[in-house]
Amino acid sequence: MADVLSQSEIDALLSSLSTGEVDADELKKEEKDKRIKSYDFKRALRFSKDQVRSITRIHENFARLLTTQLSAHLRTYVSLQVASVDQLPYEEFIRSVPKMTILNVFEPYPLEGRLVMEVNPNIAYSMLDRMLGGQGEPYNKVENLTEIETKIMQQLFQRMLEVFREAWLSVEEFDPLMEDLEVNPQFLQLVSPNETVVVISFSTTIGESSGMINICLPHVVIESILPKLSVHLWMQEKQRERDDKELQSLEHHLQKAQVPLSVELGRSAITVEELLQLQRGDMIELDQLIDDSLTARVEEEAKFKVQPGKVKHHLAVQVTEVMEEDYHDER
């Protein structure tokens, strides 16, 4: 937040300008120089701030979901938190990865291309040790993985990818399928070295072991879904989903609402004198013929033409015609 000058400081500045102690042109030049920022074309920023914020929010949800899943599966303390979200050239990401690590390469079908999840060996072997009945010791033996250990680790990573898919459901539905398990990043060439990628780093703790998990998303792979990462469009989609759910709920409750239905047998007009003289057994002539259809009303509105009858000794009516909305009933 910019500093707010006091009145005395403002007066002193104006006095300096008037006496020539401070050059106004020099101040303008300094302000202009501050606005100029260096730009490295090797580190092209392909993701907007909105998109980076959306990616961060998605993977914060991924961290929460994966913490719950791993805690139940490994039966030990698990903590995942998003440490950073950075965009950088793919070559720089590969150089930052340890020479021997666990690289889970997977395809986010139907998106074209491959993504990678890099898991620090301390974390990977701690999880493997827990699944094999141990205490979660971080034995580092990347170069000597047995076939059984590799298979168990692949199954564990596929479970993690299911959580990854669930975290992205609010933006895009895809089916991540594990393709390969690498240990040397030099053999992994997802995209060209200068391609911009966004790297999400998770600070991870499994029992007594700690390390980092990094997910690398190349721009060229997720480019087709980037427009959906705009906060404005995302909020619109969320609002649309909420409106649809509210509409369905409203329709559901309306369908269960009870409304009074009445059937009019006919009408008659008599004088007050005739009304006062009515006795039990007297007959009142209606203006409705026996063969004519009766009118069924819903909330005093004429809706159906019906025919009277009986169903299992109960009085009933059968709908013979649905009356039009513009029907005007004269009462």
Shape: elongated
Count of the separate structural domains: 2
The H-and-E topology, N to C, reads as HHHEHEEHHEEEHHEHEEE
Q: What is the strand content?
A: 25-35%
Pfam family, one: FliM
GO molecular function, one term: cytoskeletal motor activity
GO cellular component, one term: plasma membrane
Protein name: Flagellar motor switch protein FliM
What labels describe this entry?
331 residues, alpha+beta, Chemotaxis protein chec, Surface presentation of antigens (SPOA), 2 domains, elongated, membrane
Could you walk me through the main structural features you see in this protein, from its secondary elements to its overall organization?
Helix 3 (49-74) crosses helix 6. A hairpin with a 2-residue loop joins strand 8 (294-298) and strand 9. This protein has a six-stranded antiparallel sheet. A four-stranded antiparallel sheet has the order 7-8-9-10, with no helix packed on it. With 331 residues, the protein is an alpha+beta fold. The protein is built from nine helices and ten strands. The chain is elongated and about 105 Å long. Helix content is 37%, strand content 25%. The longest helix has 26 residues, at 49-74.
Secondary-structure blueprint:
Blueprint: H1 7-19, H2 24-35, H3 49-74, E1 78-89, H4 90-96, E2 102-109, E3 115-119, H5 121-131, H6 147-167, E4 175-182, E5 196-206, E6 209-218, H7 219-222, H8 231-255, E7 261-264, H9 272-276, E8 294-298, E9 301-311, E10 314-322
Antiparallel strand pairs: 1-5, 2-3, 2-4, 3-6, 5-6, 7-8, 8-9, 9-10
Helix pairs in contact: 3-6
